[in-house]
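Record 1 of the preview.
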Amino acid sequence: MPLSDLEKAAALQILAYLSKKGEASRTDLRHNIDAAIKTIYSTLRVLMRLNLIEEISSTKFPFTVKIRLSDKGRRVAEHLVEIERVLKEG
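->
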């Protein structure tokens, strides 16, 4: 996986958000990620292809799909959270 794959708009935001929240619906991501809906959806496809996120479908009503980090995604996100912390130090 080249690092350039993570340069896709909103990829780092989505990984960091999921790291903090644990899981989120697409609606939740649309409301909390600063990017166009089309950008978010295409970025989710890239992150899925890279095995950084996974979808979990509920088996009971209401039938929802949640997105969460995979094990690989959690390892990547840990570094992003640390970078964010360092940048906030000033």
